[in-house]
Amino acid sequence: MMITAEERLMYQVMKAIYDSGIPVSFKGSMVLKACLLEAGYTEETRHTVDIDANWNSDTPPSSEQMVESLQNAIEKNGIDLDVSLYRMYGEGRSAGFELTDKGTDEVLFSMDIDVNRPIPQTKMYEVEGFHFRGVAPAQMIADKLSAVSSDKVFRRVKDVVDLYYLSKVFDFDKEASLQALKSSNRELGDFNGFLHRRSELQHSYEKFRFAGDVDKPQFEDVYRAVKTYIKSVLPKEKNRDLER
Question: Distance between CA 104 and CA 199 in Å, rounded?
Answer without folding.
Answer: 44
